[in-house]
Design a protein that fits this description.
mainly alpha; 0% strand
């Protein structure tokens, strides 16, 4: 896909090349999924949702060729992106930020914003659920800012 886009648009800048190649890969995958699903439906002879459910196997699927491409793409992404040292560092930092925020709010639930305070007499499990829900609703940026506000001595509260 990248070669095809580069040939069609010589001199295209890298970010547009990536965007267009990914767009084309997704389009290719969607078209394959639709075509293979139609083929499997026709082959099954199922004429109702109930018959499709009774087939005992999924009808919506990629073709064998696309499954091979998909596996190759996943291997490539796993090796070169998901396990890249910079991604690992960001993941490690994110785990540390969430763990430290959780520990702080459990130890000092009064540091939670007013609408998140645990009801009087809340036990540890209920407080943990409230803290977990509060953290789950945070964006990455907000979690980092909150961590900085609570752990950096010089950051404004």
């Amino acid at each position: 896909m990248f070669d095809e886009v580069a040939r069609r648009y010589p001199g295209i800048d890298e970010s547009r090349l990536i965007h267009e190649a990914i767009r084309r890969m997704i389009d290719h995958m969607v078209r394959d999924l639709i075509a293979e699903t139609r083929r499997k439906l026709a082959e099954s002879g199922a004429e109702s949702v109930d018959r499709v459910r009774r087939l005992g196997q999924p009808v919506a699927a990629f073709s064998e060729e696309m499954r091979n491409h998909d596996r190759a793409l996943k291997r490539f992404l796993f090796e070169r992106m998901y396990r890249h040292y910079r991604v690992n560092r960001m993941s490690s930092k994110a785990r540390r930020v969430v763990r430290e925020l959780f520990q702080l709010f459990m130890a000092e639930p009064e540091c939670l914003p007013g609408e998140w305070h645990a009801p009087a007499g809340a036990g540890e499990a209920e407080t943990a659920r409230i803290v977990a829900d509060y953290l789950a609703g945070m964006t990455d940026r907000f979690a980092l800012d909150e961590h900085r506000r609570l752990f950096d001595t010089y950051a404004p509260v």
